[in-house]
């Protein structure tokens, strides 16, 4: 069953049509790699699926709810509770330590302190950084920062995890370790993953590969 779906999505920027009638279904627990040349519309599609942008035509539904029709307050609630996002450049908050970065989305959702401690401790252990929980982002390596970013994205137990080039700023070995972590945690949490990537190695952890060219999905393969 699809937890995230897009229907006939069109997105224009000025006279340029960047997405040309995209249809996509993401099932619970499914991992999808979104591949294609630079400028083909991958990140634009990811932003629409994550509620960061709105389509000019078509619709995006998450857990049955139309993101395009949601008022800003409701959209923020949906994004905090049902979507997790991982970026290429980590975007950790520099004046919060590793643990506090993972805690933040749960504090915004007003989880009780006991539940926050339990959930965050579990996730930091799962990403293998128990001994770095009190470190500042400036004290972490790139791989460690991305592991904390993964933990933060999963903190609220989202239905869907969206990742934009999550290994793009890492060396090959560290990138492959992060991919393995994403696979393991998405299976453990039963969280769907949609990942924009240029790394063909990312295909190995995914159930499906969608290839885009010029704003269209031209291949959907298992």
Can you give a write-up of this model?
It is a single chain. By secondary structure, this protein is of the alpha/beta class. The protein has a single domain, classed as Rossmann fold (3-Layer(aba) Sandwich), CATH 3.40.50.300. The chain has helices spanning about 40-50, 70-80, 100-110, 115-125, 140-155, 170-190; strands at about 1-15, 15-25, 30-35, 55-60, 65, 85, 160-165, 190-195, 210-215, 215-220. Strands 6-7-8-3-9-10 form a six-stranded mixed sheet, with helices on both faces. A four-stranded antiparallel sheet has the order 2-1-4-5, with helices on one face. Helix 3 crosses helix 4 (about 115-125), helix 3 runs parallel beside helix 5 (about 140-155) and helix 5 (about 140-155) runs parallel beside helix 6. The radius of gyration is 17 Å and the shape is globular.
Task: Please summarize what this structure is.
The chain has 6 helices and 10 strands. With 222 residues, it is of the alpha/beta class. The longest helix has 18 residues, at 172-189.
Report the strand count. 10
Q: What percent strand?
A: 25-35%
Estimated radius of gyration: 17 Å
Overall spatial form: globular
Overall mean pLDDT:
92
Q: Which strands sit side by side, in order, in the main sheet?
A: 6-7-8-3-9-10
Described by strand count, sense and barrel closure, the largest sheet is: 6 strands, mixed
Separation, N- and C-terminal Cα atoms: 17 Å
């Amino acid at each position: 069953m699809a937890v995230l779906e897009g229907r006939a999505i069109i997105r224009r920027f000025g006279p340029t049509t960047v997405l040309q009638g995209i249809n996509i279904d993401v099932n619970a627990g499914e991992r999808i790699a979104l591949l294609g040349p630079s400028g083909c519309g991958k990140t634009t599609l990811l932003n629409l699926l994550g509620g960061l942008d709105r389509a000019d035509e078509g619709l995006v539904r998450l857990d049955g709810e139309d993101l395009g029709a949601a008022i800003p307050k409701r959209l923020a609630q949906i994004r905090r509770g049902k979507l997790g996002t991982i970026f290429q450049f980590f975007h950790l908050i520099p004046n919060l330590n590793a643990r506090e970065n993972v805690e933040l989305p749960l504090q915004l959702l007003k989880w009780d302190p006991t539940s926050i401690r339990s959930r965050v401790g579990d996730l930091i252990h799962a990403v293998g950084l128990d001994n770095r929980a009190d470190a500042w982002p400036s004290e972490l390596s790139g791989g460690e920062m991305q592991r904390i970013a993964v933990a933060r994205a999963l903190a609220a137990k989202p239905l869907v995890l969206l990742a934009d080039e999550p290994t793009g700023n890492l060396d090959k070995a560290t990138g492959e370790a992060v991919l393995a972590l994403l696979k393991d945690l998405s299976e453990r949490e039963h969280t769907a993953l949609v990942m924009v990537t240029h790394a063909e190695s990312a295909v190995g952890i995914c159930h499906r590969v969608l290839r885009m060219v010029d704003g269209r999905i031209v291949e959907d393969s298992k």
